[in-house]
Write a structure and sequence with these properties.
Length: 459
């Protein structure tokens, strides 16, 4: 007997005399002598209709085959007389694998709020919406790897534990084996810690990617990162996944082209391979989703110097909540104005003032700005941030000192500038923000399997 997925059964081009399908009951409808079960195994959005004659083996257990129960059904895949489906499974035998208590099973046939479903994140993938989200997430990860592989990049597994602060922001999770009940500890007690020094969860794999780019040419990381920001906005999470490519012998122009190409390629891939799931979001979540994706995939991105962006915002005939001025970072409302109202397409803003960017970004000839870029997209705002890196030893040393960071902590980073330094560039893209863009979902907690946010560490 051939075991097949629901997706394969629904896409069948011919009947199959013997087939077995396993999955979970979405609904069951009883008629005289027969029951109709909608079965889903997570392989696709649609359910497979199973027709169960009450005389077949196992049918005596139908009372326990309620919504949420796990079943194994064998029988004949036949053309369906019903509308909306080509094939259905005419059961020859049915087996209750795992019952679901109908009195307490929380996913009954009705719409549930996203807030409620976050409280049962161990069950929410069984819903249409979240099943679709996490199939898209899986396919999007493949699309990312495929894009970089096609462009000659090598995958780097960057460490999760680090002794340095990539951003210089200080909002990092401390990792220690010292007994917190015996603290606080003096500085010299760090020698007794597991690593003999302070250790943190990484906020980025960028610095490690720079090491390998200076040896392998082109690399990328794709892994979890952590930030201890006490932020409860729909765009922030304490744990999230980052995609960070790094290219040797590359400048800011190369970087912008790579970023634009990545976004377009991933959107194109999802539209080709997840059309049914994306259609759900276009219908129920964001009616403008198809137009947004058309715009990103089909239109060239605008290249806009930061100074010009500030001028446009100052001249805008509308009031912003946050002030606009040279030397101030752009806020989400500014980014969305540029992409949704002024240009009506994605925008790459570049050449930011050095005061609002990290120490590793290359100082431009004007001495005031750095070769940094942010890719802004409609509805989300910033989705990618990157720069050409500072390859000049003297300039990098001065920048680290200006930002009151420890030169000793970056001795190996400075060594890269001593031994065969080369211009290089890279960026970071938050994977969850990309998924928000691709699906129209407004809250980051709904595109990551188990969200970690302040005061929330469930499952």
């Amino acid at each position: 007997m051939k075991r097949i997925a629901v997706k394969d059964a629904l896409q069948a081009t011919s009947p199959l005399a013997q087939a077995e399908v396993r999955g979970w009951v979405r609904t069951r409808r009883d008629a005289k002598g027969f029951s109709f079960i909608e079965l889903n195994d997570g392989s696709c959005l649609k359910n497979l209709q199973v027709v169960v004659d009450h005389a077949i083996p196992g049918a005596e257990g139908l009372a326990g085959m309620t919504t949420g129960a796990a079943l194994a059904v064998s029988g004949e895949l036949v053309a369906s007389p019903g509308k909306g489906q080509s094939y259905e499974l005419k059961a020859a035998a049915v087996r209750l694998v795992g019952p679901a208590d109908p009195e307490t099973y929380p996913l009954q046939k009705k719409r549930h709020s996203d807030e409620f479903l976050r409280t049962i994140a161990h069950l929410r993938p069984r819903t249409n919406k979240f099943g679709a989200i996490f199939r898209i997430r899986s396919e999007a990860a493949f699309a990312v790897h495929n894009y970089f592989r096609e462009h000659g990049f090598h995958l780097l597994h960057a460490p999760i534990l680090t002794g340095s602060d990539c951003e210089g922001a200080g909002e990092m999770f401390r990792v220690t084996t010292l007994d917190p009940l015996k603290g606080p500890y003096p500085k010299e007690a760090q020698a007794e810690d597991f690593f003999g020094r302070e250790a943190y969860l990484t906020v980025s794999g960028q610095l490690e990617a720079e090491i390998f780019a200076q040896s392998l040419g082109k690399v990328y990381t794709f892994g979890p990162t952590f930030r201890a920001e006490n932020s409860n906005t729909p765009k922030h999470a304490a744990e999230f996944w980052m995609i960070e490519p790094e290219m040797a012998f590359a400048d800011l122009t190369d970087n912008m082209a790579l970023a634009e190409g990545l976004l377009k390629s991933c959107i194109r891939h999802l539209r080709e391979h997840c059309a049914e799931d994306l259609e759900l979001f276009a219908k129920w979540v964001d009616p403008t989703l198809a137009a947004t994706l058309d715009n990103i995939e089909g239109e060239p991105f605008v290249r806009l110097p930061y100074a010009e962006a500030v001028d446009i915002l100052k001249k805008a005939k509308r009031e912003f909540e946050f002030p606009v001025g040279f030397g101030l970072d752009l806020q989400t409302e500014h980014e969305r104005f540029l992409t949704e109202e002024h240009f009506r397409k994605p925008v790459i803003v570049y050449d930011y003032p050095k005061e609002i960017k990290a120490f590793y970004m290359r100082l431009n000839d004007d001495g005031k700005t750095v070769a940094a870029m942010d890719v802004l997209v409609p509805r989300v705002g910033e989705i990618i941030g990157g720069s050409q890196r500072e390859e000049r030893l003297d300039v990098l040393t001065r920048r680290i000192e200006e930002m009151h960071l420890s030169l000793d902590s970056y001795w190996w980073y400075l060594d890269l500038r001593r031994f065969g330094t080369a211009p290089h560039a890279g960026f970071g893209m938050g994977f969850e923000r990309f998924l928000m863009l691709a699906t129209g979902v407004a809250n980051i907690r709904d595109v990551i399997p188990f969200p970690r946010t302040p005061k929330h560490l469930e499952f």
